[in-house]
Amino acid sequence: MNIAEIANMAGVSRAAVSRYFNNGYISEEKREAIRKVVEKTGYRPSIQAQTLRTKKTKMIGVIVPKIASTSIGRVVEGILSVLNGSGYQMLLAVTQDNPKKELEYLATFNDKQVDGVILAATVFNAEYKRVLKKMSVPLVIVGQQLSGYCCVFHDDYHATYDITKRFLDRGRKKLGYIGAIPQDKAVGTERYRGFKDAVCDAGYEGLSENFVIADFSFDSGYEKTGELFERCGDMDGLICATDIMAAGAVQYLREQGIKMPEQILVAGQDDSELAKVTDPPLITVRYSHEKSGELAVQMLMDLLGDGEAALKEVKLGYYIVEP
């Protein structure tokens, strides 16, 4: 089967069939006639032929650090909500929190395997920036801010500042903080900076030293909570960079017989399911992850449209969720 035969069977022009498969405008009557023929014959256009003719793969590469993550899952859902109606398909690459794998996937996608890339990046070192500069396909970064690139990110700084201030306003004056690696600008640097500035602005500069760095895992949150208590003694408030770290902290505190929230108040970030099922439920921060995915696709579609879309940086808000 070819387009000419489909057009003949449907009683329409070849141009109408081409517009049908490329999501162009045709009347509903012609669209329905073509759909019936396609359904009857099982015809599918040759992707290889389309790529050779249009120089477009109709594929978007999406690079994420992990899939077992509420925030990343929401970003991908947001991407799909727009992508599924655009005529493009998604190729998902999972790096398992390995920055080197991010670079490998960027190189693979850059070799004209896809029309554009959405990158949920983790760190931006010198090597990373060199690779990004060499990208020949449009790129949008989600979850991190990087000057000179289209990106959608969150107000991590003010979110952590506000939740820390809320703890202080409730009389919690012996706070601790469990953060992420500083190479992760959003979750590591910006969230810790929000904690540090909040305690310093309130006149408790010494609390800014009550922090440890954990991996993005339950076990690490558990381990680092014990380390923080050994270093700082009793605390009445603990703020964590993520919900998974906070869940590990809650487990440690429960095993030590420390009552929550009477003796210590615990908060995480990302508003995951863990925040709801932890006993007691966590105070947490809800970021607009789905919206960030939607906006990332819309930015990429603008870039693919004429290749000259203005660079945009969009910072999204947040709200604090309390049980």
Characterization of this structure:
The chain has 323 residues and is of the alpha/beta class. It has helices at residues 3-10, 14-21, 28-41, 47-54, 70-83, 99-110, 126-133, 156-169, 185-201, 218-232, 243-255, 273-277, 289-306; strands at 59-64, 89-94, 116-119, 139-142, 150-154, 175-179, 211-213, 237-240, 265-267, 284-287, 313-316, 318-321. It contains 13 helices and twelve strands. Helix 8 packs parallel to helix 9 and helix 10 (218-232) crosses helix 11 (243-255).
Put the structure in a nutshell.
With 323 residues, the protein is α/β, with parallel strands linked by helices. The chain has helices at 3-10, 14-21, 28-41, 47-54, 70-83, 99-110, 126-133, 156-169, 185-201, 218-232, 243-255, 273-277, 289-306; strands at residues 59-64, 89-94, 116-119, 139-142, 150-154, 175-179, 211-213, 237-240, 265-267, 284-287, 313-316, 318-321.
Low-confidence stretches: none
Distance between the termini: 60 Å
- Lateral strand order in the biggest sheet: 2-1-3-4-5-11
Largest sheet: 6 strands, parallel
Quaternary organisation of the protein chains: single chain
The structure class reads alpha/beta
- The share of residues in extended strands comes to 15-25%
